[in-house]
Design brief:
Order of helices and strands: EEHEEEEHHHHHHEEEEEEEHHHHHHHH
Membrane topology: Peripheral membrane protein
Helix content: 55-70%
CATH topology of one domain: PH-domain like
Keywords: Actin-binding, Cell junction, Cell membrane, Cell projection, Coiled coil, Cytoplasm, Cytoskeleton, Membrane
Pfam families: ERM_C (PF00769), ERM_helical (PF20492), FERM_C (PF09380), FERM_M (PF00373), FERM_N (PF09379)
Largest sheet: 7 strands, antiparallel
Structural class: alpha+beta
Shape: rod-shaped
Number of strands: 13
Number of helices: 15
InterPro entries: Band_41_domain, ERM, ERM_C_dom, ERM_FERM_C, ERM_helical, Ez/rad/moesin-like, FERM/acyl-CoA-bd_prot_sf, FERM_2
Subcellular location: Cell junction, Adherens junction; Cell membrane; Cell projection, Microvillus; Cell projection, Rhabdomere
Radius of gyration: 48 Å
């Protein structure tokens, strides 16, 4: 009996591409793979543990942007195929209330930094011009590290995408002028690591009015168009022309129930003075589903923040503190080594300068010795010439004297010859006297030259002794300078680092509290810097290029209001004012 052949079942796979703001990941999934499997696979690949902030966004077959559902299969969610692959974007779906306290991992901070930076540059999040310059300086610090004039040459930052185009168009400023203002603050961030610069960027960005707000167009019964903003704190209602200042707000702890029926969306609060629910209408049923999904996720995170941390979060925070402490120790060690290297380089430069100075002094001494030797040789030559001249004069004097004797002998011949000889004798005597005087002067000059030669030789001897003393002193100084570099100091510094690493947690808590106080002071300093830059570039503003959000922001600055004061002001308003906008809305017929 023949056994029928059974084909072995094979699970076909399909390609998936996931894009982040700085990388692209590729996977091959089975057809039965769910959204949660793909999401966890991505998180394990990038080392992300704070997964509750993120989601996978994709474009469906109708061209609408949707979030991948975790419990459904990937291929059952109508994902649009691009070049034969399912394309997803890994994005932050929910936002924290306080980035400094809630974001623990560096990879989480980096992903938020990239997404918020892109939102500001693409003008999806409104940012004032002065804040844009400050944020650009932190972005440059995170990318290039400490400011270095040799590396950061003029024109290097012009090609970088650092400022929103709206800000550039508002002012009559050249790219070089913007670059100089960014460099001014960039130089002040010296010593910041990449994660510290990104965290400072997020601290400033979270104070922007549009940070972490998902806007949806809604209408009331009279078809009045407004914006619904879903945030980490609750629901905000905005006028159609103003996305910065909410008309009213409902915090998550005030909301009892949220539901929708087709395009109708109902929000019921726990306010006993206003039992009527808030009702609005969206454009499509798909938008209501997305709003409800965001509301549920933000509400869960809102309640989670107000409960004690789980063991997983406590473990992550402890690991983050240890990692931060370890990196701080390493950073201090590198800073100390850098300081020691710079000090050694400065000492080396000083020693080289001293060596050049000593070589110059030696060269000058050799030149002086050479000149003294040349002077001594010249004096010796003059002395030799004087002696030869004196010898010639003495020979001439002898010849004259012999001539006088001969003339005296011939003077006896005749009287005339005698007179003639007497006259000649007198002349010869005068000539002899002059020559004798000249010979005496030459002898005196020869004696003088001898004395000068003696003094020159004495000076030459003193110069040689001075040079020998100078050379011996120079060798002594070099011997004294050499032992300055002792290997004991680095061992001492390493020992101090070990002590720092073994510090107790109580000291670490005090340091964290100190950092918080320093951050408050630094935040005040940043606000003053923003105010100075705002007043500096105000004269270069182009009025025609101002958008309505710029006017609203200017009015907020004039009134001294911020994102948090506005929310507090709206919350402290009367209860009836919250529902005044919806006073003509139809009541809820039946809500479970």
């Amino acid at each position: 009996m023949m056994v029928p052949f059974r084909r072995k079942k094979t699970n076909k796979q399909f390609p998936v591409k996931v894009c982040t703001f700085d990388s692209e990941l590729e996977f091959h999934l089975e057809h039965r793979a769910t959204g949660r499997y793909l999401f966890e696979l991505i998180c394990r690949t990038i080392g992300l543990r704070e997964t509750w902030y993120f989601g996978l966004q994709f474009e469906d077959s109708k061209g609408n942007l949707s979030w991948l559902k975790m419990d459904k299969k990937v291929q059952d969610q109508s994902v649009h195929m691009t070049n034969g692959s399912c394309m997803f974007i890994f994005l932050a779906k929910f936002f924290p209330e306080n980035v400094a306290e809630e974001l623990v991992q560096e990879v989480t901070q980096h992903l938020f930094f990239l997404q918020i930076k892109q939102a500001i540059l693409s003008m999806d999040v409104y940012c004032p011009p002065e804040a844009s310059v400050l944020l650009a300086s932190y972005a440059v610090q995170a990318k290039y590290g400490d400011y270095d004039e040799a590396v950061c040459k003029p024109g290097m930052l012009i090609s970088e995408n650092l400022l929103p185009q709206r800000v550039i168009d508002q002012y009559q400023m050249t790219p070089q002028m913007w670059e100089e203002r960014i460099k001014t603050w960039y130089a002040d961030h010296r010593g910041m690591s990449r994660d510290e610069a990104e965290m400072e960027y997020l601290k400033i960005a979270q104070d922007l009015d549009m940070f972490g707000v998902n806007y949806f167009p809604i209408t009331n019964k009279k078809n009045t168009e407004v914006w619904l903003g879903v945030t980490a704190l609750g629901l905000n209602i905005y006028n159609k022309e103003n996305k910065l200042l909410p008309v009213t707000t409902f915090q998550w702890n005030e909301i009892l129930h949220i539901s929708f029926d087709d395009r109708k969306f109902v929000v019921k609060t726990n306010d006993s003075k206003s039992p009527k629910p808030v009702i609005f209408y969206s454009q499509k049923l798909r938008i209501n589903k997305l709003i409800l999904d965001l509301c549920v996720g933000n509400h869960d995170l809102y309640m989670k923040r107000r409960k004690p941390d789980t063991m997983e979060i406590q473990q992550m925070k402890a690991q983050a503190k240890e990692e931060k402490q370890r990196r701080q120790v390493e950073r201090n060690k590198l800073t100390r080594e850098k300081q020691l290297r710079e000090a050694a380089e400065r000492e080396k430069a000083a020693m080289e300068q001293r060596l050049m100075q000593l070589q110059e002094e030696m060269r000058a001494a050799n030149e002086a010795l050479h000149r003294s030797e040349e002077a001594a040789e010249l004096l010796a030559e003059k002395n030799r010439l004087a002696e030869e001249e004196a010898m010639l004069l003495s020979h001439k004097a002898q010849e004259v004297e012999q001539e006088i004797n001969r003339m005296r002998m011939t003077a006896r011949k005749t009287e005339e010859e005698k007179m003639y000889l007497e006259r000649k004798t007198q002349e010869a005597e005068l000539l002899t006297a002059r020559m004798m005087e000249e010979s005496r002067k030459r002898a005196l000059e020869a004696d003088k030259l001898k004395n000068e030669l003696i003094h020159a030789r004495v000076a030459e001897k003193e110069a040689k002794e001075k040079l020998l003393n100078f050379l011996s002193r120079t060798s002594t100084e070099s011997i004294l300078i050499t032992p300055s570099s002792s290997p004991e100091s680095p061992m001492h510094e390493m020992h101090s680092y070990d002590l720092l690493a073994d510090g107790d947690m109580e000291q670490l808590s005090l340091e964290i509290e100190k950092e918080r106080v320093e951050y408050l002071a630094k935040s005040k300093q940043v606000q003053n810097q923003l105010k100075e830059l705002r007043s500096e570039i105000e004269q270069l503003k182009i009025g025609e290029n101002q958008c309505p959000l710029d006017d609203i922001n200017a009015e907020q600055l004039r009134l001294g209001e911020t994102k948090y004061s506005t929310l507090k002001k709206v919350k402290s308003g009367s209860t009836k004012a919250r529902v005044a906008f919806f006073e003509e809305l139809e009541p809820e017929e039946s809500i479970v």
